[in-house]
Amino acid sequence: MPLTQDVLWYKDAIIYQVHVRTFYDSSGDGIGDFQGLEQKLAYLQDLGINAIWLMPFFPSPLRDDGYDIADYNAVHSSYGTLEDFRKLLDSAHSRGIRVIIEMVLNHTSDQHPWFQESRSSQDNPRRDWYVWSDTDHRYKGTRIIFLDTEKSNWAWDPISKSYYWHRFFSHQPDLNYDNPAVREQMWNVMKFWLEMGVDAFRLDAVPYLVEREGTNCENLPETHAILKDFRKRLDEQFPGRMLLAEANQWPADLRPYFGDGDEFHMAFHFPLMPRMFMGLKLEDRKPITEILQQTPEIPPTCQWSLFLRNHDELTLEMVTDIERDYMYDSYAENKTMRLNLGIRRRLAPLLDNDRRRIELMNGMLMSLPGTPIVYYGDEIGMGDNINLGDRNGVRTPMQWSGGWNGGFSTAEPDRLYAPLIQNPVYGYPAVNVVSQVGSGHSLLHWMQSIIAVRSSTAVFGRGSIDFLHPANHRILAYVRRLGNESVLVVNNLSGTAQAVELDLRRYKGNIPIEMFGKNIFPRVGELPYLLTLGPYQFFWFRLRRI
Amino acid sequence: MAEDTFLTDDFLRQLINVGEVDILVGLPTHNNAKTVGSIVKAIQSGILRWFPRERAVIINADGGSRDGTPELVTSISIDDVRRGPNPYALRTLHSISTKYAASPAVPAAFRTILAAAELLQAKACVVMSPESSSTEDEWISKLLRPIRNDGFDLVTPTYRRHKFEGVLITNLLYPMTRALYGLRLREPYAQEFGFSGRLGGEFLSQNVWDDGAAGSGIELRFTLAAITAQHRICQSFLGQKDHIEQRGSDLVPALRQTVGPLFSALAPDFPFWSTAVGSQPLLSIGPDHELLLDLVRVNRKRLREMFTTGVAELATVFQSILSPDTLAELQRVAHVGENDFAYPAELWVKTVYEFAASYHKSVISRDHIIQALAPLFRGRALAFLMEQRNGSEQDVENCIESLCLEFERLKPYLLQMWKSRE
Questions:
Q1: Of the residues A203, A465, A467, B10, which has the fewest C-beta atoms closer than 10 A?
Q2: B53 touching A (Cβ < 8 Å)
Q3: Taking Cα atoms as reference points, which of B114, B124, B113, B142 lies closest to residue B23?
Q4: ipTM value for the complex
């Protein structure tokens, strides 16, 4: 299946986020690899995925799971070779699957040769490649992101006897983007991968590229200028490729990252995600509709990226204090589940393994405006292990079967890069791909069908959204429209049956056709349209005028 | 549930949209636009401040206001269409209004509120007065927390009042309720109170709604129902109660709303109060009362005149109601000089008990009995005002306590009267 040539392919994408290390081990060393991922592309194609986002696979001391990069132009030997990666790329493309890779612009590992050189002396040519200071007083007031482990954004380097700036772990010194050489070098890095055929970059931690005194050192105009320059070069030299911003900011602060369609193509809608969980627990659509109503319009070529979970903690940075407390009490009563300002749990455990809630959340993911991202393993309802440190509890081996090592690897179990989930509810004997393929009503089959329905129309990826505001606040209802096509989505956020009257006068005369079973419902008339929904039930109706 | 016409289809539809709630605030209104605005803001603030995570609803049962009262109440809804003053409220807050299908009357409003509480499965409820301009957001918490957190079924208020306010409560309702029902509940006839969904549901299904005599004073019947069913009751100090100017002509309606229902309740509640002995204190959250002592003007001459005139002009009526000894004593008191005027506690208690017994037997029209009490109450009020003119807070409290003990001491007298008239 060839790749589509549509430059707006990302609007129709169903993205699957995966770490090479976690997916499938072809070599038997206990660590997933490129060849293993390549062997599983058929599975992803069957699921309906048409883009994969690979987490960092570069050489790295792996103190931050690969986000501490020590060499931008190679791959970690644990995952294979550059040639293996090229083959994976080609195989993916042949199946119509695009490949998005990470690009950590903001910082490197302290083991990167650039930093080793930079710290070696004040006169080194790469001295100015990082942000150095004689004191730790500069940029006061800048928030600390990894609150649980870092006390300061400055770290003392005993070798160069000065401080260096780091917005993340202290072993991840920030690059100095005021230095043109840094900017040029990073473009060359991106170009290296683009020439190989990579379709897109997820640019990690972009708000923090530039620092200025008297600011919060986030989202600065200089940062946007740098990103716009990268985008300009991308469009000139590699049309059809895509940049996805990781910027955990309020919607109004996210908007500038799209520019006038000349900066990022896509950005994660971070503030929406926790509010979906909040709305579900409150049984109230208010948090969801309010954040979307606050979300500014973006250029027509741009797209939000939606997700339920990812490799990081469920971030609660972009919520109010009262909302954060509520989320902690609702979803992470056990304090070991909390990390930094978030909750380090997978989707299924967060939702108490309630199949109805899992379906509802995925239903919203697939029908709200944006491109959905499915985190690996969530399609089969994998669990987590909060006893593993940091965020590793949500990065355990993919569970392919109930057999040896969950079908992930032929290695001795002790050699696995991380232990498999073993408990009776989420353990690999209970939750795995093989058994779900064999069960017609499994979550996996359900995910396939909802992805298929979503992909059957462009309205979800490219259409507008009009919220209905039924008086029953437990119902989240909206109409997606693109051209002549309209889809009515109705979600019951509560665990009890609900009745709702929808004002559909605007669609009078249309016949709602439920999109999964294709059954027709009563025609829309003048009167409020009465629907009843079971606990956590949702409907997608194509509105058809015949 | 009651007959079809009790809840309108439109109101039912609104209740469906609200769904199950944890907290329900009931607000009965009729042309209260002057005061209700600040009250609903205090309610909203109270819910957001003290119960931000709870599912809450405000139910306005309106008697057909023409001054925009319902619109003022519903305007404080918080939802994703119309954001209230606190855009960071976690939840939707519904504030809905219905016109109950009856002429304006508190019982119909209260019944509507109780019905809504049952249909919405409300765990804790509070009724607020639409006239109280001293309402604070903390009142919501003070009336609801004992129910939500401590399992009480009824929370009645206590207030900071002027020592000469609420004389009907301090000199009749409180001591009589205390003596007969055995519980030292300071405000048996409250306009702000909290109750559990369980208590509300029980009272809703009682056969009181078509009883004209109990139709007024439904709040008092509610309190007595909670006592006789031995629900857990406490009282919670709310603070200042705003002073409402009382006109002389307000007394008879006030007696009808309070003493009438109290007297009416004695018959059905006889098995309970006839066996209750003494009185028990109940948990008071905060002080169980506070008094303001500033000087106020009292028209003593007018009060005495109304008392003595009443005693003289209603002599034949009193002959039907009172015992000869009590009547004779009253007539003697009526002739005492102004400066020596007194209406001793024992005489007052006997007066009240004889009225209660006569009411029970309906020796004359019950409404006439209530009306006839008015001049005698004025006499008692005058005596109290004179006695406590310079009284300290402790003096006043001692006086009320003595009166309560007198009511308790003479309870056998009531029982004797009650049986002798059967």
A1: B10
A2: yes
A3: B124
A4: 0.80
